[in-house]
Amino acid sequence: MPSRKTQKIHGVVYTPPDIVDMVLDVAGYTVGSGIVGKTVLEPSCGDGTFLRAITDRLLTECSDTNVSLTDARDHLISDIHAIELDASECDKARRAMCDAAERHGIDVAPSDLVNIVCGDAVELLQSSTDRFDLVVGINGKEILELGIRRTSAYTTSTCRRCRVSGGARAA
């Protein structure tokens, strides 16, 4: 992980794993809640901290519900979407997902993860017709506030019929 000074210069802030878990919990992306088959978007995935946790939760639920490894791999590839502006970070995110999948006995190559794309999220989403069941993420300012004061995090739920249908706030 780059130094705090480097992160500040480039406007990059990484979400700590405990904050990722809190955001996913608040968003309802929890094992046992029927997450298999739900599509998720992380519009600024960085090095893959959210994607690692999402992958782990998805594959745990697949295992708990006796989804075959082949079907679990298919869900991993088709249900998880992410965008990252920095190509090297996008590569790290793909590798993070592959590592998480491997821990569940699923072999997936970074090149298989076609829904993890490098580009400008605003531009890509404006021209996209894709809809997602859940959009998760947190902006840099909120991460810094959470790291210092543990105040609030936001998640946004979306449905296939509409771009944004609601949000949740964690205290």
Molecular structure report:
By secondary structure, the protein is an alpha/beta fold. The chain has helices spanning about 5-10, 15-25, 50-65, 70-80, 85-105, 120-125, 140-150; strands spanning about 40, 80-85, 115-120, 135, 155, 165-170. Helix 3 packs parallel to helix 5 (about 85-105). It starts with a helix and ends with a strand. The relative contact order is 0.18.
Number of helices: 7
- Give the strand content: 5-15%
Strand tally is 6
Task: Give me the secondary-structure category.
Answer: alpha/beta
The main β sheet shows up as:
6 strands, mixed
Considering DSSP H and I runs of 4 or more, what fraction of the residues is helical? 40-55%
Q: What distance separates the N and C termini?
A: 27 Å
- Mean residue pLDDT: 80
Task: Order the strands across the largest sheet as they lie in space.
Answer: 3-2-1-4-5-6
User: Based on CA inertia axes, which overall geometry fits?
Assistant: globular
Give the C-alpha Rg: 15 Å
Order of helices and strands: HHEHHEHEHEHEE
- Uncertain residue ranges: 140-171
Task: Please outline what is shown here.
The chain has 171 residues and is α/β, with parallel strands linked by helices. It contains seven helices and six strands.
